[in-house]
Each structure stands twice: as structure tokens, then as C-alpha cells.
TrEMBL record, chains A, B:
Pfam family, one: Aldedh
Physiological role: Catalyzes the NADPH-dependent reduction of L-glutamate 5-phosphate into L-glutamate 5-semialdehyde and phosphate. The product spontaneously undergoes cyclization to form 1-pyrroline-5-carboxylate.
Organism name: Acinetobacter silvestris
Catalytic function, reaction form: L-glutamate 5-semialdehyde + phosphate + NADP(+) = L-glutamyl 5-phosphate + NADPH + H(+)
Entry's EC annotation: 1.2.1.41
Top-level EC class as recorded in UniProt: oxidoreductase
Pathway(s) this gene product operates in, as recorded in its UniProt entry: Amino-acid biosynthesis; L-proline biosynthesis; L-glutamate 5-semialdehyde from L-glutamate: step 2/2
NCBIfam families noted in UniProt: PRK00197.1, proA
GO BP of this protein: L-proline biosynthetic process
Tagged with keyword NADP: yes
GO terms for MF: glutamate-5-semialdehyde dehydrogenase activity; NADP binding
Domain Aldehyde dehydrogenase: 109-308, 313-377
Name of the featured protein: Gamma-glutamyl phosphate reductase
Length: 421, 421
């Protein structure tokens, strides 16, 4: 079995590599026509896809999947419509491929610049939500990449039905069906293969729980665009305008709980703690947010506040819990964030120009903010049009990753006969 | 022993990580003062460094190192001067850190942009030439990164003497000496450790033979900026101006043989082969370049031309040998380059606008050229100021890599109280 999976994955890889060279040369109009044909094919296959999804749902219930998972798995007519709407959005994005920048003359007389090109083949590993199949495929196609999709076993029928429609659309416009391939086995060995074929796959994009992503990162021999923790901070500095600090601290924690850009630790300068903490605590109490505070926080808010342990500073609660620490000033705040944080998104609230400038320079996170809610760290809010994911890496892509994350740049040199002296 | 090496490398890694956070916040003037102090320290240590180098040279001769290696190992007073000159050049480069680009307003009212930041800690693995120690250290410092250097065992004394002077310079301006560390053991296990400490090292830059680089890439769990083969092509298209094609084909092959951007295969359109091949063959004959041709080439140039085997098309000769193939046109040329080439640097010689445009778009190489010699693929010729290396990867850095290759970008968000709706 192991052998035949290896062979199967090798074939999938080879086919993707071949398809990628055709896609890389495809014009914007061909790629958009493909997306449009996929739109039509999906629309025509709606009953078939929803029926396939019902098989997954029935099997999921038989296997006692938990209700949150079943909810993410389900494709309703409304969700199907949203999925098609997302495809239209991708169609309307600018084609990033072929863009030439920084073209300039050198003393030798050559002109040198950079041209944006596809990465080649993307490997996507994800769980439950079948709409990711279409989202990932359409973003890959728009950026001229072939893609190999490995969804969760619980969504196999849904994903294959969606893939079938996608491949039908590709065929209609004369592109190879192998531009988008869905792994047809639920054997875990297939993932092991996918992430160790650098000859066929250029980048891996995992979406799922932290355990999955850590395992993939550890075992992959291919670059991974990965997203781990979001342990975000808001630091209310001594010069903060509390009319800004209060709504931001409330929004960053309570706008949505289960998201990576929600605040998990609130830092407050001791010079404003006596004034600020009771007021924000009242707002949190209305939302039933549990506070876990340092000694100074407990002293100010009263002993009913639970104490924060060392582990709390590291925690990504993803729920209505917040760690609160009173700090002696800027220096302690930055040290705390760089030590305990996950380098995701951190904000300072201050009216002091020099401190804002310092915070921006010294906090080592993928998004650093002044006087804004951490909840803004998002591809759509940043104007990227679409979001492949949020990267917690520094190499290649950092923070919210748009279509550009699936591209690279090559150098182009234009001359009229120059030789090297 | 294995245990103590692991412990030693952990300490080196921790120290580098700590130093990197101080360096990341260092202003341009502090970094330039450090480079200036290092300049003075090296000048004062010249006799000591040259003496250390003589120990390495004596040991090298005792160990029967080959003469090419000994030549690369030797530090003469002239080479020492050149090394210091290179340091001055790095001092004069613009500081890339802190540069903010693309700052623009979003509909929500936040301003969003990107700020250039150091990667953190660079691990450099290299062979023989001790001047790389200073070059790598100065580029890392200029870009705000700490660096761990692992030179060849044959250069240990030279590298340590240079590192001592560098650390003296760092101390003078109050920066931690651990900004630049040289591994003091020649045990190979140290390399194994260095490339598997993602918690302390952000990127690995290897310089050396292909075997070394392949091994590092295979075993590393950290991104590697790597350079493998340079199998470069020049394609003389049917519309080529032979007054440009002849000097370029000559220059690309014979300007220097042992370099990665030298041409290794010449492709000639059958429509100009009869005219072009005899003329270029005469020029190559003067330089005693051995030609290995396809059947058509042999037919045109005579049976004295050796036949090219399938392997020849893959070969990076790094010497006065050239494979020559007559092709039916653009399509065959592009297929050949993308199949047999190493995606390094490839050029077309043509006066046809549309074919030039097509070649630029479809050749999947880190540098694609029109009417210029492949020898231009070089950080200095491209105006990068300094060259970390030439990357054959697509992720993070591609082609000649300058100071930017040791940096990343983070998002910055500026607001005046915005919250997410």
C-alpha cells in the first residue's frame, strides 16, 4: 500500500509540474476564461455537489464527529452561493503575473528589472470546510500556479465533487485538468509524500489546527507558508487618549473571540492604570470576559480578579479570557511582547510621537500598530483582495498573505549587445 | 563529545538571538560606527591575522591540501587590503532597515504600509577563503542581523583571528561581541546543530561545493538561501544581429570559465546556423574552447567536432568546453532551456520584439536576458552594492541576492482610534 501511494503521489506531482508550465505561460484572459467556465460548471453541478456533501455529513454523523466540525463541513445552498461569490471576487483581482518593476539602466548600459512569476506548484493541506477547495484552486489559477489539494477525509466526497466541476471548467477552455488535483486517498502517507517532493511542489500551505501545522513544518522539505499562534497585545501607554484606548481594547478582545488577531494580553502603563483599568474592566464585565491579572492589576481591580500565572502570558485563549499586566513603561512593554508574544500583531495606544515611532521599530511582529485595533490584521482590511493565510514566518511572506504570496520575482535584463568587461 | 557540542551550539544560538534583538534596534550611526571600529581593529591586527593565516597555510601544506585550495586560503598583504576595502564599501551602502514603503490609506481610515526589518540571526557555512568571514559579518551587521560563522577547518586560525578583531570593534562601540560568533570547533556535528536550530537561527547561507549545499538543504529545518548549478544558455534566434550575437556568445563562454553565470550550452536557430556557427567556431578555436555538438552542428562544422551526449545538455562544465545545439526555433529553445537548464541565467539574441517578449515571459530562470551576456548576472552588475550570494530558489530571494536578502518586511498600521466594524 505504502508503495502504491508513493507511486500515486509521484504521478500527481509530475502531472502538476507539467500543468504548471502551461499555466505559467497562460495569459490573463485565458486564466479568467477558465475561472468563468469553472463558475458555470459549479453552478450546473450544484445538486450533485450538495448531494455529495450530504454523504459526507451522514458519514460524519455515523462517525460521531463533533457538532462544530459538522457545521464547518456542511454546504448549504446559501454557503454554495457565497462560495461562487468568492470565485467572482478572485476573477476581478488584478493578474499579478508579468508585472515588471524597478526597470532601470546600469552604467554598463543594460536595463535591469524584476518580473513577477508564479511559484509553480502549490500543495494545500486543510481540514473540513469544502469551500477551501474552490478558494485555494481559484487563487492558484489566478496566479498561474498548479495546485494539489489534500482536504480532510471527512470532506472527501464534497471535495471530489467540487474538483470534478473545476476540472470540467478547465477542460472547456483547453487547460489541462491536472492544473487542479484533489488527492483521492485518505491515507495519511499521502501527506508525508506531498510535503517531501521538492522536485514537484514549490510551496506548502497548511490550514488547520496548530498540531497539524507543527507536524507539517517539522517534516516538510519544502517551504511552508504557515500560521501558528496569534498571541496579540494592546499596550495602553501613559500618553494614551483614553477615548481611543477604551474602544480599541474592547474591540480587540470582544469583536470576535476565536480569531488569531484578537488581543490575548492587555498591557497598561502604571501611570494610567488606576484610571484606565476600572473603566475597561466594567466594559469587559458587560461582555463576561474573565480577567487574569498581575499583582498590581489585582490591587487596583480587587481580589476577585484571578491571578495570572507565568503560563497566562504565553496563552492564546481564543475565548472570553484576557491576561492583564501593569508595566513600568515602554521598555517593559516591548520586552514583554517580544518575549511572550507570538510575533503576530501588537498595538500601542499613545499620543506620543517618539514613543509610537520606537514601538513600530522595535516590536518584532508581523503587524505592528499605533492607535488601531489588532482585529485589522487581515488580508481584506489590508487591501490584498484575497487572503491565502496569515504567515507567522519572516521568510518569503509575513503577516496577511495575498496573491503575491503565491508568486516570486525573476530578474530581467534588456540590452543591445552588451558584454561584460 | 556529541553532547557537549550540542550544548555549545545551543549557547552560541542563544547568545546570537539575544544580540540580534539589540542589533535590530541599533541606529544606522551605531552600525556604521561599529563597522568603522572593526576597520581600525583589523588594521591594528594585520600582523597577528597574517601570522594566524600562516599557521593555517603550514598545516594545509602538511595535510597536502591541493594548490587551488591553498591559494584560496592564503591572505597576502594585498588581499588583506582588498578585504578592508570591501568593508569600506559595506559601510557606504544605504541602511536598508526601517525603510517604509507603500504607506496608503484604507477605507477604514487606517494607514497601512511595510517596514523593512532584519531577519534576526544568519548562519553562514563556507569553505577556505577567510575574507568571507569579514564580508559576511559586515553585511550581517549593516542589515541589523547577528551572525554565526562556520568556516572550513583549514581556515580556523585565520577566521578566529579575524573574528577577534571584529569582536574588539563591536565592544568599542558598546555592541555585544556575540553579534558575530565564529564556531570554534571543526567537528562536523556543529554544522548539523546549526542548521536545525530554528529557535535561534532564521536563515542559512551556505557557500561551497554542490555536495555541501545539497547536504545542508536536505538536512536543514531552517530556510536556506542556496546556490546550486549554473547551467546557462545563449539562444541565437533567427532574427539575431550577428554583430551582437558573436561578441555575446564569445563573452558568455570565455570571459571567465569557473563561474556560475558562464554559458554552458549555445542554442542556434537552424535558419542562421550555417552562417553563424562557422564564424563563432573560429573565435572559440582561438581560445581553445572544445565544442560538443548535436548532429546538425557536426554537419555544419565538420566531423572533428565531438558529439554531444544527452548528459552534455545537463552539464555545468566550469571550463573551456561548450555544448552546441541547432534548434528548429523559439519553441524548441525554450523547451530545451526549461528542461535541461538549472534556472539560473539564460539569454536570447534577437531583434524581434514579440519573440523577445515571449522569451522573457516563458523562460523559468532567475535571470532572463535579451541581447546581453549571461556574465552580467551578478550583484554588483545589478547594482545591489554587495552580494550575499546567487539564489537558485524561488522562495524569498531569487538570483543575485543583496543586503535585502537578509531582511524581511513587517506590516505597520497607523490609526487614530479605529476599531473593526
Amino acid at each position: 500500500m505504502q508503495d502504491s501511494i508513493e507511486q500515486y503521489m509521484q504521478t500527481v506531482g509530475q502531472q502538476a509540474r507539467q500543468a504548471s508550465s502551461i499555466l505559467a505561460a497562460a495569459s490573463t484572459i485565458v486564466k479568467n476564461n477558465a475561472l468563468s467556465a469553472i463558475y458555470t460548471a459549479l453552478k450546473n453541478s450544484e445538486p450533485k455537489i450538495l448531494a455529495a456533501n450530504q454523504i459526507d455529513m451522514t458519514q460524519g454523523r455515523d462517525h460521531n464527529l463533533d457538532s462544530a466540525l459538522l457545521d464547518r463541513l456542511e454546504l448549504t445552498p446559501t454557503r454554495f452561493k457565497d462560495m461562487l461569490h468568492g470565485l467572482k471576487d478572485v476573477m476581478n483581482l488584478l493578474d499579478p503575473i508579468g508585472e515588471i518593476t524597478d526597470l532601470a539602466y546600469r552604467p554598463s548600459g543594460i536595463q535591469i528589472g524584476k518580473m513577477r512569476v508564479p511559484l509553480g506548484v502549490v500543495g494545500m493541506i486543510y481540514e473540513s470546510r469544502p469551500n477551501v477547495t474552490l478558494e485555494a484552486a481559484s487563487l492558484a489559477l489566478k496566479s498561474g500556479n498548479a495546485i494539489i489539494l489534500r482536504g480532510g477525509s471527512e470532506a472527501l466526497h464534497s471535495n471530489q465533487a467540487i474538483a470534478e466541476a473545476i476540472q470540467h471548467g478547465l477542460k472547456t477552455v483547453g487547460l489541462p485538468e491536472t492544473c487542479v488535483q484533489v488527492i483521492n486517498t485518505t491515507d495519511r502517507a499521502a501527506v508525508g509524500q506531498l510535503i517531501t517532493m521538492p522536485e514537484y511542489v514549490d510551496v506548502i500551505v497548511p490550514r488547520g489546527g496548530k498540531g497539524l501545522i507543527e507536524r507539517i513544518t517539522r517534516e516538510a522539505t519544502i517551504p511552508v507558508i504557515k500560521h501558528l499562534d496569534g498571541n496579540c497585545h494592546v499596550f495602553v501607554e501613559a500618553h494614551a487618549d483614553l477615548h481611543k484606548a477604551l474602544p480599541i481594547a474592547l474591540n480587540a478582545k470582544t469583536h470576535r473571540y476565536g480569531v488569531c488577531n484578537a488581543m490575548e494580553t492587555l498591557l497598561v502603563d502604571e501611570k494610567v492604570a488606576e484610571e484606565f483599568l476600572p473603566r475597561i474592566a466594567e466594559l469587559y464585565a458587560e461582555k463576561q470576559v474573565e480577567l487574569r491579572g498581575c499583582l498590581a492589576t489585582q490591587r487596583i481591580l480587587g481580589a476577585t480578579i484571578k491571578p495570572a500565572s507565568e503560563e497566562d502570558w504565553y496563552e492564546e485563549y481564543l475565548g472570553p479570557i484576557l491576561a492583564v499586566k501593569v508595566v513600568s513603561g515602554m521598555e517593559e512593554a516591548i520586552q514583554h511582547i517580544n518575549k511572550y508574544g507570538s510575533h503576530h500583531t501588537d498595538a500601542i495606544i499613545t499620543e506620543n510621537f517618539s514613543l509610537a515611532r520606537q514601538f513600530l521599530a522595535r516590536v518584532d511582529s508581523s503587524s505592528v500598530m499605533v492607535n488601531a485595533s489588532t482585529r485589522f490584521a487581515d488580508g481584506f482590511e489590508y487591501g490584498l483582495g484575497a487572503e491565502i493565510g496569515i504567515s507567522t514566518d519572516k521568510i518569503h511572506a509575513r503577516g496577511p498573505v495575498g496573491l503575491e504570496g503565491l508568486t516570486s520575482q525573476k530578474w530581467i535584463v534588456l540590452g543591445d549587445g552588451q558584454i561584460r568587461q
